[in-house]
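fyi for ur records
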Amino acid sequence: MDKRDGYALILNTMVEVAKKRGMDHAGDDYALACYQILEAAISEAEVWGIPRSDIGLEGFDTNALLSTKRKAA
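which gave:
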């Protein structure tokens, strides 16, 4: 495996963890940190012309991390 592929896998894992843990803590400081990480990832992806789907964020609403209203399971 090329090192760049390894980097991509690591970063995609980080995105998935930030999404899950942020949603688990929606509305608190932990979720805010996850929000900031994911927004930075989105911003960098836009700068580099990388679609959100390539970083696991297509259709994901980062603003949901800031809301204390949680969807019913």
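Residues 35 and 63 are 8 Å apart (CA to CA). thats all i got for now
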